[in-house]
Design a protein that fits this description.
about 65% helix, alpha+beta, 15 helices, 3 domains, two-stranded antiparallel ribbon, Heat Shock Protein 90
Length: about 500
């Protein structure tokens, strides 16, 4: 209680004082219990059971609402117990609080608030219910029902809501929206069931059994609603978590693919440096030669050589930019032969140094939807794998084949190397699976992902001592290229 603000503590003391005064004023009414003690005991037990079976539901994060059938008991006690029902509520709520080991100030506040709430409801019933009539029956009985229910609901709403507002510093209206509004439909149901049970009891006390069964069913329905709500919230949280993980996975895959591209380029950095060195040597040599010679034809020849080797440098630069650029996949109409040419430009010198012969069997395929940069990455990974395998046996042959089969483009990279062991072949496209001593095991997994993103298929066949063949099937969408009109001559 010491942790509560001063205003909340004063409010608690005021509630307890009012409860004490009203309790002392109604002590005389408890004499009626001596004539029908079993009714009072049953009421007390009903309050204990209702409080113990309360269902807590979290309709908003951090805001929990308690669903009980106390309202039904209030509507039943008003015509059957009179003001004695207030004592049944107070004592039963206290027992529940002690059994659940709630803080003493909370237990006493709950008992006092229910005592005052029921007292207001009983007062409304006494003023509105016709004397001698069946409880809540007829037009005046309906008015008594509405008045009793409203007195119970609004008095409880005010007493509890004001306590929360003073304890948390929130406006009373905000407390209502966050903590209480969600349970309105529950109150409507329990008020109605309680009124019907009171009418049944007035007709025949044994008929109250049916009302009790309805209350039990209502409580179980509350529990089912809570379970459904919790499951819905859990699934929503799981869906949000899956979406977040998928986004994170996609981002990491992009970073991984880019890192693999840069790693592959690093493998051929020496070859690329050698190519540029040859280009620069030719340019510088023929530029100096052009400065020395005086013959126009010899100068033209020097310039022609410079232009040709510069074009070679431009081709290498274009291949590097196409391959290493980090961006989202872009499917465009392009000729896959261009990706093969760009890749071979990067690897030709490295293959020659390792005594690897490159054989090309390239058919002339029409343009297709593809990302040339990513296709180049796949080819570079496959050629790198074949070259590494052939290097171990002192050289060999890599064959690149491009053909058309029905509406598909077949791109095959074959080598006559040592092959892949069967225990690795079945999982070669899984991340971190490699046959190399210093391999990362990411190249084939990235190739698989790129081919799948092109709506294609990649397969591999290999056997120890019989080489390896990787086949890529991509959907081919040929188009008719526009035919240039003949130029008009005059």
């Amino acid at each position: 209680m010491r942790t509560l603000p001063v205003a909340a503590r004063i409010y608690l003391l005021a509630i307890w004082a009012c409860t004490t005064l009203i309790g002392l004023a109604t002590l005389a009414s408890l004499r009626a219990i001596l004539f029908t003690p079993w009714i009072a005991i049953a009421a007390f037990v009903a309050v204990v059971i209702a409080g113990s079976a309360a269902v807590m539901i979290e309709l908003q994060p951090g805001h929990r609402v308690s669903l009980t059938v106390h309202e039904a008991l209030g509507m039943l006690f008003a015509p059957t117990l009179g003001i004695t029902g207030a004592w049944a509520f107070a004592l039963g709520t206290t027992v529940v609080g002690v059994a659940k080991r709630r803080p003493w100030e909370r237990t006493l506040f709950n008992a006092a608030s229910y005592f005052l709430t029921y007292s207001c409801a009983h007062l409304a019933f006494t003023l509105l219910q016709p004397t001698g009539a069946l409880p809540y029956s007829g037009p005046q009985g309906m008015l008594a029902f509405l008045g009793t229910a409203a007195a119970f609901y609004f008095s409880n709403l005010f007493l509890v809501g004001l306590m929360i507002a003073l304890a948390t510093g929130q406006p009373l209206l905000q407390v209502y929206r966050d903590h209480m509004r969600q349970g309105n439909w529950v109150h409507l149901l329990t008020f109605t069931v309680g009124a019907a049970t009171a009418a049944l009891y007035a007709v025949d006390p044994w008929l109250v059994v049916y009302g009790v069964l309805i209350l039990v069913i209502a409580q179980r329905a509350f529990a089912a609603v809570v379970a459904l709500n919790a499951e819905t919230r859990r699934r929503q949280e799981l869906a949000e978590e899956r979406a977040r993980l998928a986004e994170e996975l996609h981002r990491q895959q992009d970073e991984l693919a880019h890192s693999a591209r840069l790693a592959a380029l690093g493998t051929f950095s020496a070859s690329i440096a050698h190519e540029f060195n040859n280009v620069l040597t030719a340019v510088i040599g023929h530029a100096q030669l052009g400065q020395i010679v005086s013959s126009p034809s010899e100068k033209d020849h020097a310039l022609d050589v410079i232009a040709r080797v510069s074009q070679r440098a431009t081709s290498i630069t274009k291949s590097l930019l196409t391959f290493a650029r980090q961006r989202e996949p872009e499917l465009r109409l392009a000729r896959i032969q261009a990706a093969i040419d760009d890749t071979i430009t990067l690897v030709s010198h490295e293959l020659s140094r390792d005594q690897v012969t490159l054989v090309q069997k390239i058919a002339d395929l029409p343009p297709m939807m593809c990302d040339l940069g990513q296709i180049s990455q796949v080819l570079l990974n496959l050629i790198t794998n074949s070259r590494d395998a052939l290097r171990e046996q002192g050289g060999g042959t890599i064959t690149i084949t491009l053909a058309q089969e029905a509406d598909q483009a077949l791109l095959t990279v074959t080598d006559d190397g040592p092959g892949i062991p069967p225990e690795i072949l079945d999982k070669i496209f899984q991340p971190f699976v490699t046959t190399k001593a210093k391999g990362t095991g990411l190249g084939m997994a990235i190739c698989y992902g790129i081919v799948e993103s092109h709506h294609g298929k990649i397969s591999i066949t290999s056997a120890p001592g019989c080489g390896t063949s990787v086949t890529i099937r991509l959907p081919l969408r040929p188009i008719e290229l526009p035919v240039a009109e003949p130029a008009l001559t005059t």
